Amino acid sequence: MSNAYVRAKRPDGSECTIDLIELETALEGDMGSTYLFFPETGKIVFRPGEDPFGIDEMDDEDEQDGKAEGTEVLTLDRIPSHERFRWMEDFIETVYSVSARSALRNALNQKKPFRHFKDALLEFPAVRQQWFQFEARKLKEEAIDFIESLDWEILKVVDRRPVENVSPEIEPAERLQPTGEEREWILRAGSEIAAKGGRSQLALLLKGSKDKKLLKHHLQNSPAYGKLSFLTLEEIENRIDHLIRLNELRVEFFGDFPLILLSDAAWEHVRPWSNEQECRRAAAADDRTLNEILLQWRNRPRPEQFHLLDAVTSLDPDSERWILQAWREVAGKEVRTRIEEKLRSST
């Protein structure tokens, strides 16, 4: 008897044993080949595709034997690619390592995602073994779901196949949670670097690095610059990863470039501080730079512009009026109306 099988009861009360390994193999499928299932016996028969070399005579004989055993024959459909793709997406959410998670997610954004996913797994041997276990569980679930789809009752599932327990190797430092102050500065720095850099750039910003990518965006002037300089880069990255696992931060790929973004809840938390910093930079800008800043503000969603308008009022009266007057010249209709209301109320 097979190391893995399912005992099921048909609607008429009769029982049947199905080889679980054969059924999983059939559902996993070979391109161009067919697997047949005979409900009266539970037997599964493999039928190869076109054989230009004429060596499939033995398989044809097996198929004829199978057909002789029952009148009803079902073709077993291969698990569709979109379903297997969803498995990979689901698996990524279980991966502890943020580096591995990012690499796998990037692989799914490439052409030929299945090939790139396999290649990415080679860089993370332990995660690769976890994927094999995850995939095996999914195949087993699909096999049992198929039997239940026949309106058969599952009586027993026996699976004696050896399973190696693969657990991710997690260093104690990786489990260390950031303090409240560290979390606050990570989120603030995240708002400064959002859509400009990735996880590494965020860590460098908090470390106070002279990295040219940070200098390009003038992030050395950010209040978050060097705020966690007392930590090593690895320690900063571990704390950033903790917030990524909590979904307060996320990494998204634009092409091949990973960029840090804040969750909606994290942005709501840090927005007052972020808007205040933007308004202060606007107040310190020259006329030309201010115009560039205001044009960027105009391209934001209207609710975000209204929040910035409220933040402008926290400036000194002269700076507030100077920014509002310049903003009025480039603002859309609704925002311009609110600007004029604020200008009237400030006189």
Brief descriptors of the model:
347 residues, alpha+beta, Arc Repressor Mutant, subunit A, 3-stranded antiparallel sheet, 16 helices, 8 strands, elongated
Topology:
Blueprint: E1 4-9, E2 15-19, H1 20-28, E3 34-38, E4 43-47, H2 57-69, E5 74-76, H3 81-92, H4 98-108, H5 113-121, H6 125-149, E6 153-159, H7 172-175, H8 180-193, H9 199-207, H10 212-216, H11 233-245, E7 249-254, E8 257-262, H12 264-284, H13 287-298, H14 302-312, H15 317-330, H16 333-346
Antiparallel strand pairs: 1-2, 1-6, 3-4, 3-5, 7-8
Compact overview of the structure:
The protein is an alpha+beta fold.
What does this entry look like structurally?
By secondary structure, this protein is of the alpha+beta class. Among the domains are: 81-159, no CATH class; 180-262, Winged helix-like DNA-binding domain superfamily/Winged helix DNA-binding domain (Arc Repressor Mutant, subunit A, Orthogonal Bundle), CATH 1.10.10; 270-346, no CATH class. 56% of the residues lie in helices and 12% in strands. It is built from 16 helices and 8 strands. The strands form 3 sheets. It has a 3-stranded antiparallel beta sheet. Strands 4-3-5 form a 3-stranded antiparallel beta sheet, sandwiched between helices. The chain has a two-stranded antiparallel sheet with strand order 7-8. β7 (249-254) and β8 form a beta hairpin. α8 (180-193) crosses α12 and α9 crosses α11 (233-245). The longest helix is centred in the middle third of the chain and has 25 residues, at 125-149. The radius of gyration is 30 Å and the shape is elongated.
